[in-house]
Amino acid sequence: MRTRKGLCYPMVGAIGAGCSGLKRKRAAADSAPAIAGSRRRLPVDNPDMFDSLPDDLVLTILSKLCATASCPSDFTSVLLTCKRFNGLGLHSLVLQRASSKTFAVRAQNWSDSAHRFLKLCADAGNIEACYTLGMIRFYCQQNRGSGASLMAKAAMNSHAPSLYSLAVIQFNGSGGSKNDKDLRAGVALCARAAFLGHIDALRELGHCLQDGYGVRQNVAEGRRFLVQANARELAAVLSTSTAASLLSWTPHSGNNSGTTQSGAGARSTSAPAGCPLLSDFGCNVPAPEAHAANKFLSEWFAAQGGPQGSGLRLCSHAGCGRSETRKHEFRRCSVCGTVNYCSRACQALDWKLRHKADCAPLERWVDEDGDGVENDGVGEANGDVMAES
């Protein structure tokens, strides 16, 4: 195999001859009388074994390192080692295999160089980089067209988070007007993401079928999808190494959860501490870890003090980070009117994690424009009621 310098791998006999010659040189050097104050020097013609390594072997090593890096510094420190690593480390074959943790830069460390590196990964065909950069451009930099195109590029390669994010954009008409909503397209994208194993997409699809939102109503099929979402959530927790210490079983009894009667319906006053929808079945599990792109959005808007624009709001689910692109884009909780969500999946998760203990029915609540909006329903224990803003 030919290296970058045009050298070839030596034959077996040549290797043996070279080794024996090297031994004779070492023996002659050891037998030579030592001169006081002098330093022993290596032969000038001693080749650098690193330079003799072929490029394809170095690319394989760098690709493996880039795919298993736990943080961006694990890979950038290698690029600073030498000129050859810096050149081969930015090869498309290496960047294509980069994991999401390799370019998971914090929002406070965002810079032009981080943007260029993420764009290099996206141009190399890395679908995780396409999704992350697409989310950043669409929501943070307000570059809607470029961000949606990058997410669509990842979605065409069967990237489930990109499919679900595009579904949320279609449900809300993000980046356009209220008339730009395409509910049927959102349901189709959710169905594709759910088929690929995305839990939030499966949960969203179940709610759409239950409510007849963008698809013909089928309550039984919607409930079946919601049960499947809980089962996949449990399987994801059990697959972790610390599942035994994180998972506990507390069977529900008839008198262990109190309810408070208020208004036209009942509201549960007991909220499981730090557990998502699996608490419906008695399993207390930690909340799923948010994607690196959602973490970046949350940190970005926290540092900016909220979305840029008057009256724009963030999704109230802590693990989402999405912001409105126009006023009153997200839907509110029809009970209290104090929280808003980009999707039904975010509402269902936030209800079990936090909002169940804080939601208080109100007879009337006022929006930002000062117009009173009548409460069209009272939240049930599963938080399934949302109202248009």
What would you say about this model in short?
With 389 residues, the chain is mainly α. The protein contains 15 helices and nine strands.
Globally, the shape reads: elongated
Mean pLDDT: 76
Percent in strands = 5-15%
Gyration radius, rounded: 29 Å
Structural class: mainly alpha
Widest beta sheet: strand line-up? 6-5-9
The parts where pLDDT drops under 50 for at least 5 residues are: 11-18, 251-275, 368-385
Largest sheet: 3 strands, antiparallel
Tell me roughly what share of residues is in helical segments: 40-55%
The count of β-strands is 9
- Contiguous helical run count: 15
The arrangement of helices and strands along the chain is HHHHHHHHHHHHHEEEEHEEHEEE
What quaternary form is this? single chain
Distance from N terminus to C terminus (CA atoms, Å) equals 66 Å
Overview of this protein structure:
The structure is a single chain. The protein is mostly helical and 389 residues long. It has a domain at 263-387. Helices cover 47% and strands 6% of the residues. The protein is built from 15 helices and nine strands. It has helices at 12-31, 55-68, 72-79, 83-89, 92-95, 112-123, 127-140, 144-155, 160-172, 183-195, 199-211, 219-238, 243-246, 292-304, 344-358; strands at residues 248-249, 259-262, 265-268, 283-284, 331-333, 340-341, 364-366, 372-374, 386-387. The strands form four sheets. The chain has a three-stranded antiparallel β-sheet. Strands 1-4 form a two-stranded antiparallel sheet. α7 runs parallel beside α14, α10 crosses α11 (199-211) and α11 (199-211) runs antiparallel to α12 (219-238). Pfam families: TPR_27, zf-MYND. InterPro entries: At2g35280_TPR_dom (IPR057136), At5g50450/At1g67340-like (IPR044508), F-box-like_dom_sf (IPR036047), TPR-like_helical_dom_sf (IPR011990), Znf_MYND (IPR002893). Residues 370-389 are annotated as: Disordered.
